[in-house]
Amino acid sequence: MMTSTSCPLCAETGGVLVAQGPRWRVIRATEDANFPAFYRLVWTAHVAEFSDLDADGRRECMEAVACIEQALREALAPTKVNLAALGNVVPHLHWHVIARFDWDSHFPAPVWAAPRREVPGGAEARLALPLAALDARVAAAVSAFLQQRDA
What is the 3-state secondary structure (H, E, C) of 7-43? Predict the structure, then answer.
């Protein structure tokens, strides 16, 4: 496995560790309280681009991303789920999977835009279930995927 000592996603978990497969991990990002249901799938090996993966890796990566998205949809019924793999700031392959709501501080603008409104009581309080329960749902979804893949 190739890593880079100067890469924050190689050196650190990158958030709350929710689940881990042999080639990737799922974390819940904690840097912005406006988006508590913000998850990332982080590829373990230090690669910059999705096309750096072989065909099997690309399939596995996207299936895992889809599992996270589906778990968020089932648990929270968001208005939309945003998927992004920008990597401009941290050139290490990772996918953002973000549950969005018509009440969130930025909607319908991207999470990186300027906020449009305050969320009374905070965004986490508006979620349909506590973050620990949401993390467990996401973990169960990706664990089921790994078990099915390995069967």
Answer: CHHHHCCCCEEEEECCCEEEEECCCCCCCCCEEEEEE
Residues 8-150: name the CATH superfamily. HIT-like (3.30.428.10)
**Domain boundaries, given as residue ranges, for the chain:** 8-150
Q: 123 and 36 in contact (C-beta within 8 Å)?
A: yes
Q: What is the pTM of this model?
A: 0.94
114-141 pLDDT per residue, tens: 999 999 999 999 999 999 999 999 999 9
d(CA 102, CA 79): 6
Q: Which amino acid is at 46?
A: H
Give DSSP secondary structure letters for 82-148.
EEE---SSS-S-EEEEEEE-TTSSSTTS-TTS---S--TT-HHHHSSS-HHHHHHHHHHHHHHHHHH
CB atoms within 10 A of CB 53: 18
